[in-house]
Amino acid sequence: MESANASAEGLRKQISETEESLRKLKAQLHQFEFQEKSDSAKTVSLDEHKWPLSAEEYKRYGRQMIVPSVGIQGQLRLKAAKVLIIGAGGLGCPAAAYIAGAGVGTLGIVDGDVVETSNLHRQILHGTEKIRWKKVDSMIASLKSLNPNPAYVAHAEHISPQNSESIVKQYDLVLDCTDNPASRYLISDICILLQKTLISASALRTDGQLIVLNLPPLPAGAEGGPCYRCVFPKPPPADTVVSCGDGGIIGPVVGVMGVMQAVEAIKIITSGKIDSSAEVAGSGENTKQEPTLMLLFSANSSQPFRSVKLRSRRAGCFACSKDSQLSLESLTSGSVDYVLFCGFTSPTKILQPEERIEASQYSKVRSKQHILLDVRDKVQFDICHLDGSINVPFSNFQGGKEDVVDGSSWIPDSLPNDASVYVVCRLGNDSQVVTRKLKEAGLDARGKRYIGDVKGGFKAWKEQVDQSWPEY
Amino acid sequence: MAPIGHFTVLYFASASSYTLKDSEFLPTPLPLSKLFDHLDQRYKGMKAKVLESCLVTLNLEYVDVPESATDGQDLIIKEGDEVAIIPPVSSG
Ligand SMILES: [Zn+2]
């Protein structure tokens, strides 16, 4: 087994080295072909500096350049622009593809993750053969094939208070394509401090949100566009934050949001709005600031797109108001604690050891009369569940409906009141909360009935009992 | 369309998963300052878990939900209005 692993590892290495040298050869060839073309072009045109773009660029970007709102000026602005995409996932992939395709001059990508199988249904620049690659490398390889003209910069690390200033200051426009509250506040803050417009999008399940923040990108206290804190001053409680891994995501839903980010980026760049000094100089007194909108996309709704009008900067905003308490020093030194601000969920530990049972232990008591209460969402229950288990999703317990919490709506009348109830979920967090709620509602009949949580959920079940259990 | 004497409330993202609804009709008039408490009564714990970090719009425009009713300042949600409860979505 070990030697098989070693030779597989060796093969993988050999493949990636061969791919690397193939890539280099292709780049060389491209260089030569390009040279040939421009040499032959020279014989026709004596003055090679006559046109601001190369012949290839006119052809490549022609279809968008003849759109009146872009034009040659817009194309030159794109070529001069430096765009930063933070997050090379479901939002970042489509956003990057269209922005690179449109001919932006420099495109930076920030991500510290590697490509996994569960990414592929939505992260369209990563292919099956790129599993285990760094996402930034995988993305840039795809982008180079799409358009070799832009300069691509890989930042193979997660955005942090420490690196945010040095990365973001190299760019003109920032796209937040990340996946957690702490990074959203951090990116918004650094964009206020460095006066960058921020295009922020997010998606979960069948819904998405898009906001263009800090436009115009003016210093704190000036009448610039609102920041993320103006819109959401209070982060959601950490234990209510759902990731795509837990909540699920439809590929094209997050794709639509990433594509919309690219639309906004191209609009902002081609109209010359990324330069804050130009905005101030050219604004005069009666320039009306357009209201900031949030676009909401709900794929399953009868009205899938909705725009709501947001406020301008919030008086007293921590980051962008004249009373701002934020500085580059306080941010980069770590004295603004984003993790603490957003809270964190330590592994749930709300039960006593005797209120929990190992998965392997549970498999041994399955023959006795009992109830297995599966609190995953119904869709997950439908993918796989254990025979005889009862499904009552966790969300049904949240609203606090009495007949759910005291069991009367789901416990069969025939069940003796000393038969045990075991609670299970995907990873073993929600099941603990439910176990606690059931006991508080008195379902344990003053200790007559055992109520316990299957420790580690179905993840543990797969590890300890049934290796064939589908991992989804 | 909301029936007579009602307004529409739209639930997005975690507000929708908490209430298990996309929208519903609630009786008018309702002072905006009472909105969160009213919803918290219908859906136990919703105020702290969801509402306090939400963006709220009235007829597609941002509104500040006052912590408590301030004399005469309070907006009243009227018949036919549309209120949206928009929690931050951070994943992507
Ligand atoms: Zn602000």
From TrEMBL, chain A:
<keyword id="KW-0833">Ubl conjugation pathway</keyword>
<feature type="active site" description="Cysteine persulfide intermediate; for sulfurtransferase activity">
    <location>
        <position position="425"/>
    </location>
</feature>
<dbReference type="InterPro" id="IPR000594">
    <property type="entry name" value="ThiF_NAD_FAD-bd"/>
</dbReference>
<comment type="function">
    <text>Plays a central role in 2-thiolation of mcm(5)S(2)U at tRNA wobble positions of cytosolic tRNA(Lys), tRNA(Glu) and tRNA(Gln). Also essential during biosynthesis of the molybdenum cofactor. Acts by mediating the C-terminal thiocarboxylation of sulfur carriers urm1 and MOCS2A. Its N-terminus first activates urm1 and MOCS2A as acyl-adenylates (-COAMP), then the persulfide sulfur on the catalytic cysteine is transferred to urm1 and MOCS2A to form thiocarboxylation (-COSH) of their C-terminus.</text>
</comment>
<keyword id="KW-0862">Zinc</keyword>
<keyword id="KW-0547">Nucleotide-binding</keyword>
<dbReference type="GO" id="GO:0002143">
    <property type="term" value="P:tRNA wobble position uridine thiolation"/>
</dbReference>
<dbReference type="GO" id="GO:0004792">
    <property type="term" value="F:thiosulfate-cyanide sulfurtransferase activity"/>
</dbReference>
<feature type="binding site">
    <location>
        <position position="227"/>
    </location>
    <ligand>
        <name>Zn(2+)</name>
    </ligand>
</feature>
<comment type="function">
    <text>Plays a central role in 2-thiolation of mcm(5)S(2)U at tRNA wobble positions of cytosolic tRNA(Lys), tRNA(Glu) and tRNA(Gln). Also essential during biosynthesis of the molybdenum cofactor. Acts by mediating the C-terminal thiocarboxylation of sulfur carriers urm1 and mocs2a. Its N-terminus first activates urm1 and mocs2a as acyl-adenylates (-COAMP), then the persulfide sulfur on the catalytic cysteine is transferred to urm1 and mocs2a to form thiocarboxylation (-COSH) of their C-terminus.</text>
</comment>
<feature type="binding site">
    <location>
        <position position="317"/>
    </location>
    <ligand>
        <name>Zn(2+)</name>
    </ligand>
</feature>
<comment type="pathway">
    <text>Cofactor biosynthesis; molybdopterin biosynthesis.</text>
</comment>
<feature type="coiled-coil region">
    <location>
        <begin position="1"/>
        <end position="35"/>
    </location>
</feature>
<dbReference type="GO" id="GO:0046872">
    <property type="term" value="F:metal ion binding"/>
</dbReference>
<dbReference type="GO" id="GO:0005524">
    <property type="term" value="F:ATP binding"/>
</dbReference>
<dbReference type="Pfam" id="PF00899">
    <property type="entry name" value="ThiF"/>
</dbReference>
<dbReference type="GO" id="GO:0032447">
    <property type="term" value="P:protein urmylation"/>
</dbReference>
<feature type="domain" description="Rhodanese">
    <location>
        <begin position="366"/>
        <end position="470"/>
    </location>
</feature>
<feature type="active site" description="Glycyl thioester intermediate; for adenylyltransferase activity">
    <location>
        <position position="244"/>
    </location>
</feature>
<keyword id="KW-0808">Transferase</keyword>
<keyword id="KW-0175">Coiled coil</keyword>
<keyword id="KW-0067">ATP-binding</keyword>
Automatic annotation (TrEMBL), chain B:
<protein>
    <recommendedName>
        <fullName>Molybdopterin synthase sulfur carrier subunit</fullName>
    </recommendedName>
</protein>
<dbReference type="GO" id="GO:1990140">
    <property type="term" value="C:molybdopterin synthase complex"/>
</dbReference>
<keyword id="KW-0963">Cytoplasm</keyword>
<dbReference type="GO" id="GO:0006777">
    <property type="term" value="P:Mo-molybdopterin cofactor biosynthetic process"/>
</dbReference>
<feature type="modified residue" description="1-thioglycine; alternate">
    <location>
        <position position="92"/>
    </location>
</feature>
<dbReference type="GO" id="GO:1990133">
    <property type="term" value="C:molybdopterin adenylyltransferase complex"/>
</dbReference>
<comment type="pathway">
    <text>Cofactor biosynthesis; molybdopterin biosynthesis.</text>
</comment>
<comment type="subunit">
    <text>Heterotetramer; composed of 2 small (MOCS2A) and 2 large (MOCS2B) subunits.</text>
</comment>
<dbReference type="GO" id="GO:0000166">
    <property type="term" value="F:nucleotide binding"/>
</dbReference>
<dbReference type="InterPro" id="IPR003749">
    <property type="entry name" value="ThiS/MoaD-like"/>
</dbReference>
<dbReference type="GO" id="GO:0030366">
    <property type="term" value="F:molybdopterin synthase activity"/>
</dbReference>
<keyword id="KW-0501">Molybdenum cofactor biosynthesis</keyword>
<dbReference type="InterPro" id="IPR016155">
    <property type="entry name" value="Mopterin_synth/thiamin_S_b"/>
</dbReference>
<dbReference type="Pfam" id="PF02597">
    <property type="entry name" value="ThiS"/>
</dbReference>
<dbReference type="InterPro" id="IPR012675">
    <property type="entry name" value="Beta-grasp_dom_sf"/>
</dbReference>
<dbReference type="InterPro" id="IPR028887">
    <property type="entry name" value="MOCS2A_euk"/>
</dbReference>
<keyword id="KW-0547">Nucleotide-binding</keyword>
<dbReference type="InterPro" id="IPR044672">
    <property type="entry name" value="MOCS2A"/>
</dbReference>
<comment type="similarity">
    <text>Belongs to the MoaD family. MOCS2A subfamily.</text>
</comment>
<comment type="function">
    <text>Acts as a sulfur carrier required for molybdopterin biosynthesis. Component of the molybdopterin synthase complex that catalyzes the conversion of precursor Z into molybdopterin by mediating the incorporation of 2 sulfur atoms into precursor Z to generate a dithiolene group. In the complex, serves as sulfur donor by being thiocarboxylated (-COSH) at its C-terminus by UBA4. After interaction with MOCS2B, the sulfur is then transferred to precursor Z to form molybdopterin.</text>
</comment>
<keyword id="KW-0597">Phosphoprotein</keyword>
<feature type="modified residue" description="Glycyl adenylate; alternate">
    <location>
        <position position="92"/>
    </location>
</feature>
